Amino acid sequence: xxxxxxxxxxxxxxxxxxxxxxxxxxxxxxxxLSYDDCQDVFQDAFIVLCYNLREGKYDGTCSSLSTYFIGxxxxxxxxxxRTKSQLSSLADVSSLPPLTDEVYKSDKVSTLLALxxxxxxxxxxxxxxxxxxxxxxxxxxLLWGFFRDNLSLKSLAQMYGYSEGSVKVVKHRCSEKFRSRxxxxxxxxxx
Length: 191
Prior knowledge:
The protein has helices at residues 5-31, 35-55, 65-89, 101-104, 108-134, 139-148, 153-160, 164-190. By secondary structure, it is mainly α.
């Protein structure tokens, strides 16, 4: 493997270019951030990613590097929104519009809900990772391959020496095992 600086720079450039469009679309759509805010979030998240990689905080067992990076971007976006919310709370309250149904129907409501659901989403993500990791083989490998790594059924069949039809049946059964465990655990949390 070539470990020259140009190799690392090319790998980093390729990653940044591949992720920028995904992150820009995700942040703009989900959080309605401006282009400049998206750039700031992306840069801050990339610094965190580099630090986490250097410190060994990412082991790749639960998510792909792309998914992990999107999660960092999401957390940085929420952090930015919290900061902006704190700054706007210092504004003169008399300048705020009266509370009407129209105010509640605005896009700001989804932003507020996203702030409250952040911890819940992270817990759900960890729950999914734990369940899939604890499924017996080949379920854990097939589900990771299909859902996390976006491998086709044909690719999975070749990797594990099954026919494509067998992989489809096994993946379906494994998905049912996952769904059953997930529902049982989620019901337990809210009962």
